[in-house]
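S1.2 Input.
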Amino acid sequence: MSLYDVQQRRREIALRRVNGAQVGEIISMLLRRYYILIGVAFLIAIPLSYYLIEWYMVDFSCKGPLSWWIFAVAMVITTSISLLTLIFQVYRAATTNPAVAMQSE
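S1.3 Output.
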């Protein structure tokens, strides 16, 4: 999804670069949207997964403890992987030559 979005916005990124925007500004502008999406996804996923795990383990005779740190570790790992991927894609799009991006479309 993010790769498609970045490819669709190459012309916008090129125009911003021509008008003097720095690479860091472009990266923060494009990542702001994904920070919000990841936050909303975790606000929905954590309570839902907790409820589903508890529901699944109702009939187990020997239950393992379900701690908050399990969800925190999952959130950190998932967020790290997705943001590193996004930063790489956006950085690559922001550092391309604007003339090449404008000619290709």
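S1.4 Remarks. The mean pLDDT is 85.
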